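Q: I have 120 residues here and want to know how they pack in 3D. Can you give me a structure?
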Amino acid sequence: MKKEGFPQEIRVKKESEFNSIIQGAKKTSGQHLILFRLQGEDQKGPRFGIKVARGIKPAVRRNAVKRVVREVLRKNKHRFDANEAVVVLCKYTAGEREPSQLGEELERLIRGANTGVQQR
């Protein structure tokens, strides 16, 4: 059985790491999400970070947004290069959408970034 977890070692956690990825990455924007992808040095696999606007209230809703994003990234890990760092920035408007709509938007962003569409 294929292991599809989202372990701690593949997560971007430090603010300095988030900032360096966002500063140098290719950006793909959607209505409620922004996907940043940065090719890096040799790693054991892609690394993922999730930033959610604190304007999404209450915290339960913010956590639900993070869960959806984490699940979509987990299921689409194979679409990223092994030496790639990825950050998903969730705008405050993401809290107004249903989780399934956010998941679909993120999947579109991932597919678009792989084909070079919608990059800014």
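Q: Anything worth noting?
A: The longest strand covers residues 33-39. Helices lie at 15-24, 59-75, 99-115.
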